[in-house]
Specification:
With 120 residues, the chain is an alpha+beta fold. The protein has one domain (2-87). It is built from three helices and seven strands. Strands 6-5-4-7 form a four-stranded mixed β-sheet. A three-stranded antiparallel β-sheet has the order 1-2-3. β4 and β5 (46-52) form a beta hairpin. The longest helix is centred in the last third of the chain and has 13 residues, at 100-112. It is elongated, with a radius of gyration of 23 Å. It starts with a strand and ends in an 8-residue tail after the last helix. It binds zinc ion. Zinc ion (ZN) binds next to loops. Residues 23, 25-26, 53, 55-56, 58 line the site of zinc ion.
Length: 120
């Protein structure tokens, strides 16, 4: 996944590496390590590498585990904390979100409905 390609000229040790990584649209691409980031996930064994695709420019991420994570840390990557999706931090002034029980209840009411609209 990661390989050295030239000696680092700065204090950022990642500058001396490139990542061989797979974009879901373009396939295998090579990306300079200094434009990639390593992020923690909700699991202890998986991390994600966020990268801009060197072919299409789209920002994407892939899951990395085990030795790949160790190699990235050895190459100077630091693990950024995981962030919660912004939607989860928004206030919900109206009501709680639908649950699976709400969906089941809706289907039961729909099946029991005889086609008349009593409220009208
Ligand atoms: Zn791409």
């Amino acid at each position: 996944m990661i390989s050295p390609w030239h000696p680092s000229q700065t204090n950022d040790r990642r500058n001396g590496y490139e990542l061989w990584i797979t974009c879901s649209d373009c396939g295998d691409v090579v990306v300079p390590a200094e434009v990639c980031e390593l992020h923690a996930t909700m699991t202890a064994t998986e991390h994600r590498v966020a990268f801009p695709c060197s072919s299409c420019g789209r920002r994407e991420s892939i899951v990395v585990t085990g030795q790949d994570v160790a190699d990235l840390l050895d190459a100077g990557f630091v693990i950024h904390g995981s962030s919660v999706a912004a939607e989860l931090l928004e206030a919900r002034p109206c009501a709680e979100p639908f649950s699976w029980d709400d969906l089941l209840s809706f289907h039961e009411k729909l099946q029991a409905w005889d086609g008349r609209v009593d409220a009208m």
